[in-house]
Specification:
The chain is α+β, with helices and mostly antiparallel strands. 48% of the residues lie in helices and 17% in strands.
């Protein structure tokens, strides 16, 4: 009878969590967040400037090299003269212009948010002087990749476009992923989860010092491992993989914690049965999951 109850609780938790994510995950193959590359520019001059990312490959997603036909021209928001200047640019390492461009002097960044190139160069174009300024090669190092370019000290001379000028590597970018925010998010999630599960423990009558110590130790261990793993997944694969993984890992944590409570918490709780520990693990993990899921919709920057 007890075994059936444990299996039933386990399946109920799985179904409840899976119901939250099943619909958006199966909606269509190309839905959900995509990798992105953002290049932010500091200390830009007032000169009109356009920017793009040159790709090592000839296409990425819908972006592709112009094949010389009118049908495959992809100007988007670029003026034709600007687009043509980028098309005519010849990179010494064979990187390609994929017909995507940004008015960097207005936006202060290049934001390629849909299938950006994996290996790329940054290329700026100043139409008033016909000057190109390029960088070395960089790579997409995370699901959401951030670089910053400090333009202070970069002199854009009033000279005509020529091959020597256009191929010089004159700007450098550095990685600027917000690791502080990730660490803050990790710490908040862990502390909030532990607090919720400790409160649920008090409601279940676990008030003795040794009982609370076991609850705290188990929760700190499992939540630290869970959230570190989820952060790594989010960093490398993005929010959709994060949510999907959360479903399965939460089920594993529930089963692991239930087993640990039945083994160790039972020793200091003689009046409790195994079913009480399993039920506590189920309620505590369900509560922390739903609170976390709600806060993720309200405070996505933290959760």
């Amino acid at each position: 009878m007890k075994k059936r109850m444990y299996v039933g609780l386990f399946m109920l938790l799985f179904c409840m969590i899976f119901a939250v994510t099943a619909l958006p995950i199966t909606a269509k193959a190309d839905m959900g967040p995509k990798p992105s590359v953002r290049i932010q520019f500091k200390n830009m001059s007032d000169d009109l400037c356009y920017g793009t990312l040159l790709s090592k490959e000839k296409c990425t997603g819908p972006a592709q090299v112009w094949d010389g036909t009118a049908r495959n021209e992809q100007l988007y928001d670029l003026d034709r003269n600007i687009w043509k200047a980028f098309v005519d640019y010849k990179d010494p390492d064979g990187y390609y212009f994929l017909q995507r461009g940004w008015t960097v002097s207005e936006t202060g960044e290049i934001a390629w948010t849909y299938y950006p190139p994996e290996d790329f160069k940054i290329l700026l174009y100043y139409p008033e002087t016909g000057t190109f300024v390029s960088s070395g090669s960089y790579e997409r190092y995370a699901f959401d990749t951030y670089y910053t370019v400090d333009m202070e000290g970069v002199r854009i001379g009033s000279v005509e476009y020529n091959e020597d000028l256009s191929t010089n590597e004159r700007i450098n970018a550095y990685r600027s992923y917000n690791y502080r925010m990730e660490l803050l998010s990790l710490a908040v999630r862990i502390l909030l989860t532990i607090a919720i599960e400790m409160v649920v423990g008090l409601l279940f009558g676990f008030r003795q010092k040794k009982q609370l110590q076991i609850l705290a130790l188990v929760n700190i261990t499992t939540q630290l491992l869970l959230n570190l793993l989820l952060n790594i997944i989010h960093y490398n694969a993005g929010p959709l993989a994060f949510i999907t993984s959360y479903v399965f890992f939460e089920v594993i944590v529930f089963a692991l914690e239930a087993g640990l409570y039945c083994r160790f918490l039972k020793r200091v709780s003689p009046k409790k049965e195994n079913g009480d520990f399993v039920l506590y693990s189920f309620i505590a993990n369900s509560a922390s999951f739903w609170v976390g899921y709600y806060l993720a919709t309200v405070l996505p920057g933290i959760f």
